[in-house]
Amino acid sequence: MYRVVLVLICLAAAGGLGYAALSDRWLENAKPSRRVAFSLLSSKVCVGEAPNTTCESKSNSELMTELTMQNHQDASMAFATAGHATLGLSAISALLLLLCTGYLVGQKRTSGPNGPQHLALVALMLAVVAATVFVKTKPGGSSAATGVGAGMGFYVFAVACVLGIIAAQLASKLIKPLEPDPSLDPSL
């Protein structure tokens, strides 16, 4: 039963990381007349009321370059770089958690000390750091004037990271190599 629960947690975490990586709602505002949304790679600004809404999309790198050229003090290329890093680390974490699922389902153990559960844990921790930088360096900073805050993609990412860290820690007991029994080793 324990193994089945771990498999479900690994799958939920991997699915959440996959959703978050593809979400276009990492950062967003709630103003109906001027909607702004950021994914990890791009931004979208929609102005006007339906059906006369016009939208403009651009990559986060292009946006930061444009804001830097306009001498905005809070424009930082760290925003775009952190978005790329978060995307890559989320994808790697999801794949490693799926690999852990395979080990759990197949009741297999790794042959070395660094299995997918350890690598997933490291990737998840780095993804949390990159996501923190992404959110902290968003255009407009922390001012309420921009009205851009965390969106559904960010919240799903946060829950998936917590689940992934728990799953990687708990799966380690079932995936890591067995410790040799000193009483069975004739060389000791």
Describe the structure in your own words.
Helix content is 56%, strand content 11%. It is of the alpha+beta class. The protein has one domain: Butyryl-CoA Dehydrogenase, subunit A, domain 3, CATH 1.20.140. A 5-stranded antiparallel β-sheet has the order 4-3-2-1-5. The mean pLDDT is 82.
Features:
alpha+beta, Butyryl-CoA Dehydrogenase, subunit A, domain 3, 56% helix, elongated, 188 residues, 5-stranded antiparallel β-sheet, 5 helices
Structure in a nutshell:
56% of the residues lie in helices and 11% in strands. The chain has 188 residues and is an alpha+beta fold.
For the CA atoms, what is the radius of gyration? Answer: 21 Å
The helix/strand series, from N terminus to C terminus, equals HEEEEHHHEH
CATH class: Mainly Alpha
* Named CATH topology: Butyryl-CoA Dehydrogenase, subunit A, domain 3
Number of helices: 5
Largest sheet: 5 strands, antiparallel
Helix content: 55-70%
Q: Write down the oligomeric state.
A: single chain
